[in-house]
Amino acid sequence: MLFYVSIFAFVALLLLLLYRYRTYLPVSERLRAIISLHPSRNYAPLSTFADQAAAGVTSSTFDIEADNIFQGDARVGLDEQGTREVMEIMRRENVNFDQARLIRHHRHLAANGIDPSGMPLDAKAVTRL
Q: Which of 20, 68, 93, 129 is deepest in the core (most CB within 10 A)?
């Protein structure tokens, strides 16, 4: 019995180490995309403002080209998670960039107990004195 427990523990440890160091494993990109645990396998990180602008993460009301690229902004780019969420909303719901930002904003507000107008949904909240 102890033999089987030790074999199971060794295999579990091996799997955990493989998962932890999966980025360092020498496998092809195609195989890495197949076994990837990332929900959107076709997503490529957009690391600079220029990459994000080329991918369509810009509009007349949120112009990262004029505000960041042409002014020589030294920052890396927009938040990767937020950019990924907005692009996923654009793809899934077939909306433009500004509408996708608004949808993401409303979801963020709802997750924090705030309605789209900005008022708290908590019955105990004091909204006027």
A: 68
Mean local confidence (pLDDT), 25-32: 68
Task: List the chain domain ranges.
Answer: 1-37, 40-122
Largest distance between two CA atoms of the chain: 70
Q: Which tokens sit at 85?
A: 């969420």
State the DSSP string of 54-112.
HTT---SSS-HIIIIITTT--S--S-HHHHHHHHHHHHHHT--HHHHHHHHHHHHHHHT
- What is the sign, positive or negative, of the torsion defined by CA atoms of 125, 127, 128, 129? positive
CA dist., res. 64 & res. 77, Å (int): 9
pTM over the 0.90 mark:
no
